[in-house]
Amino acid sequence: MKIMSNEQLILSYRDALKSGKEKEWIKILKDEIERRGLRPFKNR
């Protein structure tokens, strides 16, 4: 995976969830978000 800023990472995750096609990519992005301690959605 290429190096992404936190903002790019969250946007990529949200886009992947909307499309719902790339299950493995969603998992990779989610793992990275959790590793960085980010919250991809405000209400969670």
UniProtKB/TrEMBL annotation:
SUPFAM superfamilies: Sporulation inhibitor Sda
A Pfam short name: Sda
Gene3D superfamilies referenced in this protein's UniProt entry, alphabetically: Sporulation inhibitor A
InterPro entries xrefs: Sda, Sda_sf
Record-given protein name: Sporulation histidine kinase inhibitor Sda
Top-level taxonomy: Bacteria, Bacillati, Bacillota, Bacilli, Bacillales
